[in-house]
Every structure is written in C-alpha cells, then in structure tokens.
Amino acid sequence: MSTINQPPQPRGDLTLQTIAMPKDTNANGDIFGGWMLSQMDLGSAILAQRIAKGRVTTVAISEMAFLRSVPVGAIVSCYCDLIKIGRSSMTINVEVWINLESTNEPAKVTEGEFVFVAIDDEGTTRSVPIDSQP
Ligand SMILES: CC(C)(COP(=O)(O)OP(=O)(O)OC[C@H]1O[C@@H](n2cnc3c(N)ncnc32)[C@H](O)[C@@H]1OP(=O)(O)O)[C@@H](O)C(=O)NCCC(=O)NCCS
Questions:
Q1: Which of 18, 61, 75, 80 gets the most CB atoms within 10 Å of its CB?
Q2: 115 lines ligand 1 (CB under 6 A)
Q3: pLDDT given at position 63
Q4: What are the φ/ψ torsions at residue 12 (nearest 5 degrees)?
C-alpha cells in the first residue's frame, strides 16, 4: 500500500506528555528551547532507565534541531527510540510532537539524540544488563 499521502508519524515510544505553560516562554511568547530540551532529557531518561534497569545519567546530546516554535497550551509529546547500545551507553533518538493549532494535524517540532550511561550508586559506569541488549 502506498504511504505517499500518509501524514508523518512519530518514531519511537511515547514516554512523556505535558502541556506547555506561560512560565516556559521566551521573549517572543513561544516556548523556550531550554524547557524543550529538559523535557527531551526527561523523556529519554525514562526509556534509558527502563533499558538499564536502574540509575542513568546523560553524558551527551549529540544532535539537536528545533524545527518549529511551540505555542503556550500545546500538548507536548516526547517519543523515544533506542538507536544504539554499548557496554554502558545508550543512544536514544527523541522526537517532540504537537498538534498544530490551525489544522490539529500532528507536527514534529524538535528532534535530537541523547546519550545516557548506566551508573551505580556511586555514579560509576556499569554495564547495561545483558537481557536489555538487542
Ligand atoms: C557519565 C560518566 C559517569 C561517564 O564516566 P566516564 O569515566 O567518562 O566513562 P567512560 O569514558 O567509560 O564512558 C562511558 C560510556 O559513555 C560513552 N561516552 C562518554 N562520553 C561520551 C560522549 N561525549 N558522547 C557519546 N558517548 C560518550 C563512552 O563511549 C562509553 O560507552 P560504552 O560503555 O557503551 O562503550 C561521567 O562522565 C559523568 O558522571 N558525567 C556527568 C554526567 C551528568 O552529570 N549528567 C547530567 C548533566 S546535567
């Protein structure tokens, strides 16, 4: 079946959903990029913790793109997809989607790649459990 006329779909699992509030705006009245980054960090940490079965920390953001502005009141959804797993590290692709005010169509507003490391209680790296490996 052709997918040419299909609307674009988010990639990955929905791990976090929230509403963009007036306190999170920048000088233009749109949502501040730092707030968005924070939601993406939280959303991808949820997936990384599930995979690592415990504590994780963000070690890098290897790619980031802001594609559209986000208005106050938008429902912000973070979709996360594991794209690479190492000994202790997990690279997760994160997409943020909203529904456009004009058409109510879903639209991707931001995407990025977040790298997490599994750590123990002392903050030292540990191996991601074998049964989490693909
Ligand atoms: C994360 C941390 C424990 C890693 O410790 P480390 O001694 O540097 O560990 P390593 O060099 O063995 O790297 C661990 C893994 O991270 C990966 N890694 C390290 N730096 C990376 C980077 N910049 N980009 C991508 N991957 C990276 C390594 O390749 C390694 O992966 P692997 O185990 O799957 O092969 C340590 O750097 C740290 O505590 N950083 C601060 C984290 C933090 O506070 N985050 C919140 C920021 S607000």
A1: 80
A2: yes
A3: 86
A4: 105, -170
The number of the ligand 1 atom at minimal distance from the alpha carbon of 58 is 45
Give the strand order in the sheet containing 56-66. Answer: 13-19, 75-85, 89-99, 106-118, 56-66
Which tokens go with 114?
Answer: 């977040």
Q: How far is the CA of 38 from the centre of ligand 1 (A)?
A: 19
- The yes or no reply on domain 13-132 and CATH 3.10.129.10 is yes
- What residue spans define the domains of the chain? 13-132
Q: Against a cut of 0.70, is the pTM above it?
A: yes
Q: Determine the pLDDT at residue 79.
A: 98
Please name the residue whose Cα sits nearest to atom 39 of ligand 1. 123
For residue 84 and ligand 1, the question of a CB distance below 6 A is answered with no
Per-10-residue mean pLDDT, the chain, length 134: 72 97 93 96 97 97 92 96 97 96 91 98 95 64
